[in-house]
Amino acid sequence: MKLPYYMNMLLRYVLPVIALAGANAVNIYSPLFNDAQIFLPLVVVILTAIYAGRGPSLCITILAIIGYDYYFLGSPESFDFNAAAIAELLITGALVLLIVSVVDERNKAQRRAIELALSDPLTGLPNRRLLDEHTRIALAEAQRLSGRFALLYIDVDNFKFINDKWGHTVGDEVLKELAARLRACVRIHDQVYRIGGDEYAVLLSEITDLEDARSTQSAVHSALSGQAVSVGKEYFTLSCSIGIAVYPEQGRNLAELLDTSDKSMLEVKRTRRFIGNDHN
């Protein structure tokens, strides 16, 4: 869950300063980082810095300890801030920074692993696994509120020809452009997924009837087929086949909705081929 900006700043900067100043104030008559009193402030520094996950918070907390000790716990004459104390502070800070860096890198690796598991690495769109999860949530919400939602199944026509003639590098660029167009044309509360090589899906939430889904279907078709896709010096005029399935009339779970929308998409594709052959 993403925290609001002010909450993020509070946790990252203000809270560590208050926590460390308070922890160090427990030993109010002790000079900075005396051997007998280093444990508690160091533990709090490590915990708060790891919790905040950023170097700036550590710097601010160390400065807070220095400032608190210097200005509130002793005068310049009585404050034992010699070379040994400076070295101790620097070593402690370096150790904590190392720990924070290791933990931060581990957290980044974990987040990256989750992103790779739930998104398509080429387009950055959510993948089939996340579609399953979001559909379960949409099903529960629709059942609770007696609402409707829809699934669009999108297949790019004759995409294999692009890969075969111009190569997968060009094909990948086309897929990324199509993904960007899909993101731009759907409603803000709808979600686009890449579920196969040249197949996409759109989960339409909060619809009232089939016409709402058809309106988005028309917008998607215009976005993908209305303007040529350029890759380098090449231009590709594409078409797509889009199937629709609406909950609950055309499916009561993801498997049924995918099956219905897939059959609807194949029917659109067959109809287009029949009309094309008849015209020829």
- Sum up the overall morphology in one term: globular
Rounded to the nearest angstrom, the radius of gyration is 29 Å
CATH-defined architecture of the largest domain:
2-Layer Sandwich
Average pLDDT over all residues: 75
CATH H-level superfamily title of the largest domain:
Reverse transcriptase/Diguanylate cyclase domain
- The class by helix and strand makeup works out as alpha+beta
Helicity level: 55-70%
CATH class of the largest domain: Alpha Beta
H/E element sequence = HHHHHEHHEEHEEEH
The portion of residues forming beta strands comes to 5-15%
Distance between the termini: 55 Å
Number of helices: 9
| Uncertain runs | 26-33, 75-79, 274-280
Keyword list:
280 residues, alpha+beta, Alpha-Beta Plaits, 2 domains, two-stranded antiparallel sheet, 9 helices, 6 strands, globular, disordered C terminus
Descriptive report:
The chain is of the alpha+beta class and 280 residues long. It has two domains: 5-118, no CATH class; 128-279, Alpha-Beta Plaits. The protein has helices at residues 5-25, 39-52, 55-72, 83-118, 128-145, 159-166, 168-185, 210-225, 254-279; strands at 148-156, 191-194, 199-207, 229-231, 234-236, 240-247. The strands form two sheets. A four-stranded antiparallel β-sheet has the order 2-3-1-6, sandwiched between helices. The chain has a two-stranded antiparallel ribbon with strand order 4-5. Strand 2 (191-194) and strand 3 (199-207) form a beta hairpin. It is globular, with a radius of gyration of 29 Å.
